[in-house]
Design a protein that fits this description.
InterPro entries: YeaO-like (IPR052552). It comes from Mesorhizobium captivum. This is DUF488 domain-containing protein. This protein is of the alpha/beta class and 118 residues long. The protein has one domain. The chain has five helices and four strands. It has a four-stranded parallel sheet, with helices on one face. Strand 2, helix 1 and strand 3 form a beta-alpha-beta unit. Helix 3 packs across helix 5. The longest helix has 14 residues. 21% of the residues are buried. The model has no long low-confidence stretch (mean pLDDT 95).
């Protein structure tokens, strides 16, 4: 299944081209007012577990192992994944995250998982 999916820091300004804006962090990002985030939904259930998030600490050396462990969590989290897939069937979805690292974060890992699984 082809779908329109993007990843963006929640601190960037919302744009009309974002489609549905889905925050995929377990913790609300510091300094962002809920009204400014312009979210469609905060899907914190799809975020990595606290244990995995704390283990990873956005360490690029742990990136490959983080992705493997997060995929295991996603495989067990069928309800949240199904909810996100439902949004993707409706049109473009932008996954929002709060991390500083734009290459090594759960939204990027989630996008990779969704593209691989179709």
């Amino acid at each position: 299944m082809a779908f329109d999916l993007a990843v963006k820091r929640v601190y960037e300004a919302p744009e009309k081209t974002d489609g549905q804006r889905v925050l995929v962090d377990r913790i609300w990002p510091r300094g962002v007012a809920k009204k400014d985030a312009a979210l469609t939904i905060w899907l914190k259930e799809i975020a990595p577990s606290d244990e995995l998030r704390k283990w990873f600490e956005h360490d690029p050396e742990r990136w490959a192992e983080f992705q493997k462990r997060y995929r295991v969590e996603l495989e067990r989290n069928k309800e949240a994944v199904a909810q996100l897939r439902g949004l993707l069937r409706e049109g473009k979805v932008t996954l929002l995250y709060g991390a500083h690292d734009e290459a090594h974060n759960n939204a990027v890992a989630l996008m990779g998982y969704l593209r691989e699984k179709g």
